[in-house]
Amino acid sequence: MANRKKPTRSYLALEHRHQRLLPFNAFIHRVALYLAVAIVLVFGTLSIGMLGYHELEHYSWVDSFLNASMILGGMGQINELRTEAGKFFAGMYALFSGLIFLAGASLVLAPMVHRLLHRFHLEADNIKNNE
């Protein structure tokens, strides 16, 4: 008899198609966990932007926060950029922020979309087994 390890389960892992639907309380816990990961991702990105504006453009921390959050939110630059390095950073940060926005939205929606699709698959399997 082979010595098999019990598979470990990640907190962010989703159940397989043939597994039972996760209980609602556990589902709410999963949504909260995915939301927390998305929030950490966004605040980490905001911190990178603030540090970049503070160091490269010599903005105050408040102005750095304002510019970084406006770019992260998709609104655009507020203060005029004075250095070449600051302009390059702002462009790269804007591109990076767009990706982070999509990743954050995907993280927030993933457990809900997965549950919906998982429920449809379970219903389809039940109909198939009853025929």
The run of helices and strands is: HHH
- Cα radius of gyration in angstroms: 22 Å
Secondary-structure-based class equals mainly alpha
Q: For this structure, what is the CATH class?
A: Mainly Alpha
* Residues in helix, %: over 70%
- Amino- and carboxy-terminal Cα gap: 38 Å
Mean pLDDT: 87
Domain count: 1
Strand content: under 5%
Number of helices: 3
For this structure, the CATH topology is Helix Hairpins
Low-confidence parts lasting 5 or more residues at pLDDT below 50? none
> How many DSSP-defined strands?
0
- Let me know the largest β-sheet: none
CATH architecture: Orthogonal Bundle
Instruction: Label the overall shape.
Output: elongated
Give me a quick take on this structure.
Helices cover 70% and strands 0% of the residues. With 131 residues, it is mainly α.
Describe it.
The protein is built from three helices and no strands. It has 131 residues and is mostly helical. Helix 1 crosses helix 2 and helix 1 packs antiparallel against helix 3. It is elongated and about 70 Å long. The model has no long low-confidence stretch (mean pLDDT 87).
